[in-house]
Write a structure and sequence with these properties.
This protein is an alpha/beta fold. It is globular, with a radius of gyration of 24 Å. 38% of the residues lie in helices and 19% in strands.
Length: 399
């Protein structure tokens, strides 16, 4: 009976973890049966995202005190996110005691370090944090995801170590020859990198450093996401696609491809022998050339072959007022015909996901009934896919 009761308490805690964190905190103070499962969910994902220097210090102190008074809480932390503001107001990378906190997080599987306003020069991090980052992050056997954004002058050795982490997100990094401490002459094991979310590097030298690390890692990348890559780095995107053409199973094509539509011709998805899921971006924007995103999507998809065996195609649709989705119906019709052809006989899902522009006043006047009507109309326009039972239209989000 006691075991059954504890299972019920665990389930209640799990439900509140996503729906009502405040209640979860109250549950942690209720009884011993609630305390452990509640704490486990409360500390599973920790985000330190201060708004000013004073608040930043308080959050860090409270987190350190909690782990010091109750060391078991550190074992519950699986995801740690540090959101710094700028180099001038950087806190975590300059705290002498913070590396000790990192060392306690033995079960951490995901780590994020992001500078939201301007870049941070790695040379300005204190030595203790640099060493703690190496020991507790880059060399951690439990870490499966690493995300770094707006950090400059990282040691080149970091690029090689990043390929040993299964999932990696990169946003605006640079590498330079500098003191890498205990990493000097350290042998790098074969890469385990399977998922790469790439935005950009600072310069061509940083790109070359990372590409060289990938080439030497012998990793077999399976998922490549380039949603936010800037158009200047499309050359790097094409290099990566070509390099991993025999291992990629999922490809998120960059939104910025319409800035250089001639670059599309350089990508032949027919060469991606293991490709199973393709993600493309469609934008309805009055300032862009009508149908440009459809033409790019059609050019990419037309190079597929039956040998690809593509099973899923996801369209991320960015709309300014909702009604413009139907204005270009002839382009939807062309996609419907193309995806119903023999090249895509293995398709089992065509997913249309909508992201409205909430800054546009037109969206604020769209009613829920109109939203449902638009989704229904799209299902009618893509009638061939709909008849096959493979079309899924996610309801549009309203302001």
């Amino acid at each position: 009976m006691a075991t059954i009761t504890q299972l019920i308490l665990d389930e209640v805690a799990a439900l509140n973890a996503t729906n009502d964190p405040a209640t979860l905190k109250a549950c942690a103070l209720t009884c011993r049966g609630f305390r452990e499962p509640s704490q486990r969910h409360l500390f599973r994902a920790v985000v330190l995202a201060p708004f000013d220097g004073q608040d930043r210090a308080r959050k860090l102190v409270r987190f350190q005190r909690a782990l010091s008074s109750s060391p078991h809480l550190a074992l519950y932390v699986h995801k740690l996110t540090l959101l710094e503001t700028s180099e001038r107001h950087a806190c975590f990378v300059k705290q002498l005691t913070f590396p000790q906190v990192l060392a306690l997080l033995k079960n951490m599987t995901s780590f994020t370090l992001c500078f939201n306003f301007g870049g941070f020069d790695w040379n300005n991090a204190i030595p203790a944090f640099k060493q703690g980052f190496i020991d507790s992050i880059l060399l951690s056997p439990s870490l499966t995801h690493l995300s770094l954004t707006s950090i400059m002058n990282l040691p080149p050795e970091f690029a090689s170590l990043m390929t040993c982490i299964p999932s990696l997100s990169i946003g605006v990094l640079s590498f330079t020859d500098c003191d890498s401490g205990s990493l000097a002459n350290m042998p790098i094991s074969n890469g385990r990198l399977k998922e790469l979310d790439l935005a950009s590097f600072i310069d061509a030298e940083a790109e070359r450093t990372f590409i060289e690390a990938l080439e030497n890692s012998n990793c077999e990348l399976e998922t490549l996401t380039m949603d936010n890559i800037v158009w200047e780095d499309l050359g790097l995107a094409l290099i990566l696609i070509e390099f991993f053409k025999t291992s990629l199973t999922t490809l998120h094509y960059p939104r910025s491809i319409t800035h250089l539509p001639h670059e599309v011709a350089k990508l032949d998805i027919g060469k991606l022998s293991r490709l199973r899921t393709l993600n493309l971006f469609l934008e309805f924007n009055p300032s862009t050339q009508p149908g440009i995103y459809f033409r790019v999507a059609k050019q990419i998809l037309s190079k597929a072959t039956p040998g690809n065996q593509i099973e899923e195609i996801h369209f991320d649709i960015y709309s300014y007022n909702g009604r413009d989705l139907i204005d270009e119906g002839r382009y939807w019709e062309q996609l419907d015909i193309l995806l119903s052809g023999p090249k895509f006989s293995d398709l089992r899902l065509v997913l249309c996901k909508f992201t409205p522009d909430h800054s546009d006043d037109a969206w604020k006047r769209v009613t829920r009934d109109e939203v449902k009507a638009l989704a229904t109309l799209l299902s009618i326009v893509l009638h061939r896919l709909n008849r096959r039972g493979i079309l899924e239209v996610q309801d549009l989000l309203v302001h």
